[in-house]
TrEMBL record:
Belongs to the DprA/Smf family. GO terms for biological process: DNA-mediated transformation. Transmembrane segments: none annotated. InterPro entries: DprA, DrpA_SLOG. Coiled coil: none annotated. It comes from Siminovitchia acidinfaciens. Residues 27-235 form the Smf/DprA SLOG domain. The gene is dprA. This is DNA-protecting protein DprA.
Length: 238
């Protein structure tokens, strides 16, 4: 305990906070007004969020779009079909900055003039995957990067499943576009169900490995969607 206390006292909090400010990084705690109410409702809300970009997006209505890292052109076309009506309702699109589906969701949202939030599985100073550093730069300038991990923390394999609860926790519903039977996207769907949120799935061709997860979700009761209007009708039905 004495060793821990000595190490803790050596931490230069002032210098760390100055470095955050120099990089435009903000910290939103669960006690702050900027903290999203929907995220407070989940089982294990993060006590603090590190943010880079437009913090106000945390308070906007949002939809999560996730799927396979090996997503193909079908996923891209599906996301294009979904986004129009959602962005017309000023919905923010939340995803995880991963390869494939997440990348399509972020990029297409930006191209169509919408707003997007990327939830990371590590700190801002160690963006992952490295191929998406340019996309992350775009997002932090006009949108929002979010992480529960301090900026100096490197991504770890087990951070990403935990990250998924924030993706679904920020959103009114989660859309799974493509997914194998065992995938991180289905973990996100499970979190959404636990949080009492809607789960939507895009159907895919029978026998296609990337459709097995989404088709199974539909069998289990997820809402089948082929357009953004299907999502809005479910969320706002009276």
């Amino acid at each position: 305990m004495k060793i821990f206390s000595n190490d803790f006292q050596k931490v230069d909090v002032k210098r760390i906070l100055e470095k955050y400010r120099a990089n435009d990084i903000s910290i939103v705690t669960i006690y702050d007004n900027e903290y999203p109410e929907m995220l407070k409702e989940i089982y294990d809300p993060p006590l603090a969020l590190f943010t880079l970009g437009e913090k106000s997006l945390l308070k906007r209505n949002s939809i999560a779009i996730v799927g396979a890292r090996t997503a193909d052109v079908y996923a891209k076309q599906a996301i294009e079909s979904l986004l129009g009506p959602l962005l017309e309702r000023d919905m923010v699109i939340v995803s995880g900055l991963a390869k494939g589906t997440d990348t399509f969701a972020h990029r297409l949202t930006i191209q169509l003039g919408g707003k997007t939030i990327a939830v990371l599985g590590g700190g801002f100073f160690h963006l992952y995957p490295p191929e998406n550093k340019q996309l992350a730069e775009q997002i932090k300038k006009g949108h929002l990067l979010v992480s529960e991990y301090p900026p100096i923390w490197r991504p770890q394999k087990w951070y990403f499943p935990m990250r998924n609860r924030i993706i679904s926790g920020l959103a009114k519903g989660t859309v799974i576009v493509q997914a194998k039977v065992r995938s991180g996207s289905l973990i996100t769907a499970d979190y959404a169900l636990e949080e009492g949120r809607e789960v939507f799935a895009v159907p895919g061709p029978i026998g296609a490995p990337l459709s097995e997860g989404t088709n199974k979700l539909i069998q289990q009761g997820a809402k089948l969607v082929t357009s953004g209007n299907d999502i809005l009708e479910e969320l706002y039905m009276d």
